[in-house]
């Protein structure tokens, strides 16, 4: 399902999960997005109801959480979603919103060094702070740079060979393969891609871990 990306011509300036002691949980619990065009509007992602719309006039640090002016929407899909550091708020508490409705304007209120949107997604109520990977949630690549969609329409069959043994055929697309390679190298594995035979040769790591990846990729 395609969801509305909350900014126009967006780029990611800070990915989900980036580790830093400056974050309450020790990692970045959302993604930071910056609008690329002249439209700095922040747009709602999935239908829901506004459960918080807080405007803090005055000095930075007025809000304890560092979110500045922020909106939280309780979405119909069971997620609470945060739009933080807004310059202006365009909704009120209790308002029903549709995908694409304007939530406010990108800004740098609260704990922000420059204009951006901090977009955070929680499973269930925001009060439990059970954050999930907000880039995955939007269907975009969790990496700094212009937003890249994880398209699912470029699927092809490939073979995976590990330690010289043919493992199996998987459903594959270009974007997801990059994920696989990134995952493999994180884990000390090496993935060599042969374009001619469409074969990925994996060295190092454990077969079970590759199976997990394959299950994740299979649709
Ligand atoms: Zn952030």
Keywords:
single chain, 219 residues, mainly beta, Glucose Permease (Domain IIA), Ubiquitin-like (UB roll), nine-stranded antiparallel beta sheet, 13% helix, globular, binds zinc ion
Describe this structure in words.
By secondary structure, the chain is mostly beta strands. The chain has two domains: about 10-145, Glucose Permease (Domain IIA) (Distorted Sandwich); about 155-215, Ubiquitin-like (UB roll) (Roll). Helices cover about 15% and strands about 35% of the residues. The protein is built from three helices and 16 strands. It has helices at about 135-140, 175-185, 205-215; strands at about 10-15, 30-35, 40-45, 50-55, 70-75, 80-85, 90, 95, 100-105, 115-125, 130, 145, 155-160, 165-170, 190-195, 200-205. Strands 1, 2, 4, 5, 6, 8, 10, 11 and 12 form a nine-stranded antiparallel beta sheet that branches. A four-stranded mixed beta sheet has the order 14-13-16-15, covered by helices on one side. A hairpin with a 3-residue loop joins β5 and β6 (about 80-85). The model is unreliable at about 150-160 and about 165-180 (pLDDT under 50). The structure holds zinc ion. The site of zinc ion has 5 residues, from loops. Zinc ion (ZN) binds next to loops.
In summary, what is this structure?
Helix content is 13%, strand content 35%.
Q: What is the molecular shape?
A: globular
Number of helices: 3
Order of secondary-structure elements: EEEEEEEEEEEHEEEHEEH
Unreliable segments (pLDDT under 50, ≥5 consecutive)? 152-158, 164-179
Largest sheet: number of strands, sense, barrel closure: 9 strands, antiparallel
């Amino acid at each position: 399902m395609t969801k509305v990306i909350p900014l126009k011509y967006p780029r990611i300036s800070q990915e989900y999960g980036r580790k830093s002691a400056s974050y309450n949980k020790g990692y970045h619990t959302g993604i930071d997005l910056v609008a690329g065009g002249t439209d700095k509007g922040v747009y709602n992602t999935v239908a829901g109801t506004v459960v918080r719309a807080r405007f803090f006039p005055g000095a930075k640090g007025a809000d304890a959480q560092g979110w500045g002016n922020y909106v939280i929407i309780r979405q119909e899909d069971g997620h609470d979603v945060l739009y933080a550091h807004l310059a202006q708020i365009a909704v009120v508490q209790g308002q029903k919103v549709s995908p694409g409705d304007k939530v406010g304007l990108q800004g740098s209120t609260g704990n922000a060094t420059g204009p951006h949107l901090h977009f955070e997604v929680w499973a269930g109520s925001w009060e439990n702070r059970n954050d999930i990977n907000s880039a995955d949630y939007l269907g975009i690549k969790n990496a700094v740079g212009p937003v890249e969609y994880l398209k699912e329409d470029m699927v092809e069959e490939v073979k995976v060979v590990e330690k010289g043994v043919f493992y199996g055929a998987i459903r594959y697309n270009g974007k997801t393969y990059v994920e696989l390679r990134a995952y493999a190298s994180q884990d000390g594995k090496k993935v060599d891609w042969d374009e001619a035979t469409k074969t990925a040769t994996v060295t190092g790591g454990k077969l079970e871990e590759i199976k997990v990846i394959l299950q994740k990729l299979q649709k």
